[in-house]
Specification:
Shape: globular
Strand content: 15-25%
Number of strands: 24
Helix content: 10-25%
Amino acid sequence: MATQKKPAVDAVLVGFGWTGAIMGMELTAAGLQVLALERGEMRDTLPDFAYPRITDELSYGIRGKLFQNLAKETVTVRHSLADTAVPYRQLGSFLPGDGVGGAGVHWNGHHWRPLPDDLRIRSRHEEHYGKKFIPAGMQLQDWGVTYDELEPHFDQFEKICGTSGRAGNLRGQIQPGGNPFEGPRSNEFPTPPLASVNSAVLFEKAVRELGYHPFPQAAANVSQAYTNPHGVQLGPCNFCGFCERFGCYMYAKSSPQTTLLPVLMKRANFELRTRSHVVRVNLAADGKRATGVTYIDAQGNEVEQPADLVVLCAYQFHNVRLMLLSNIGQKYDPATGRGVVGRNYAYQLNAGATLFFDQSKPMNPFVGAGAAGSVIDDFDGDNFDHGPLGFVGGATINSITTGGRPIQQMAVPAGTPTWGAGWKRAIKDNYLYTASVGSQGSVMSYRDNYLDLDPTYKDVYGQPLLRMTFDWKANDIAMTQFIATKIEGIARAMGPRSYQVNVRKPGDHYDLRVYQSTHNTGGAVMGTDPSTSAVNRYLQSWDVPNVFVMGASAFPQNFGYNPTGVVGALAYWAAKAIRERYLKNPGSLA
């Protein structure tokens, strides 16, 4: 098959979700001719997310209409180096997006900043607990960038999204009702918190009585009409209960479609090509400069796209895989610990409780939003003393009502029949009176949790699939067991007639079948040492300076928060470095 060659552009973006849209805005504003290549289809609020079409749980919640087609490309998974990896063929544990907007379309909208010490986690633990506190094989790394450096970009992304919430630390002053553990903010949230749902009201009362510090979940579901700095208007959330796994028909959930694309798509120096699957980044003969990319178009043609600057803006897995397929950086070897691409894959470990109340306390779960609820941060990061506990990490604990959809969000007490009259009776008796308390737990990086190319399985284009080697470690289980005791105490204090706790136990293995979060991280981690990081502090490849790699692939380990707020801020941080430094003097920024 002959390869077509397109005219050169200044910058090519691989993938067109949040980071692609951000980089598109920033680089076109700098005067560059920018091309975005998205392997999925075009999607926009209208017509794709129009009501009532989008509130179809079977199509979007069960069949995953907005998610990656695993028949074309997937990952293979194994627990250890001694195992044979097998393909992830049915969506379960995580849900990578597909099409314009990527996972930024179907996310719930939890909008977090990291704790300042999350970004210097190794230094923090060595200072507080000593080097011996960190378990053997755990590869804790500082990020190479500080909270103070990123704060303007956290603020910038929140303003783009119109994020609703309440500041807990405003310019160093602790604010009532906010998160007292957070780093200082330069500004209050753009919009006030979402209204409290019934379960959050009970949760807040219970945790205050227990001595904890509740605050409203920061939400990229705007609480009132809002116009962002680009002049794009968002509407108030109506608590329809169709956030996670769905696009937003109300223009209320922040996504590339509702915040950036109405402006970017009108710029003359921007072009988007959908159904364009990038298969490699092309390198010059010396391997030290990218010359562009090669992609397969909608007709199956191989197309070469020359570009002076290549920015990988795809999902975490795809960024790492493209680097491996393109020989950008040294691939990681767990046997020797050498190499960087594929290093430090991490995930999250969650626990939770389902609560059933009597008829005097209706929870009305159908009134929900992706980030409607209350949270505590008392047991996240290093906000509590780990010394006597002997593990690294922690978790946020929340009560959030995302909705009450009839297929996926029907909870019944343990022992209920799975069909028939008994099941129907349990649904009738419990649906309106159900709530949850959940945690989102950090997972550290380890020497033998990593990503590489599978030696056996290939995608529809004949390229090796990405292989994930991952399992829970003793530290992770100890963390979630500790957090589960706090969850149970809170559940009990909320006064349900019954509750049931779900938590991983020692000896449990990572289970692909159960959804947890689409918060996969690492594999192309950032840092200041090229022997332990694939990209520098500006997300620039150490080995190929005109390649930048966005997204959660840059996280050296994972924390107890949703990653999107950090992903967006890092994209703005990198874009600023490109505009102000790289374009003036192309080359390494570190």
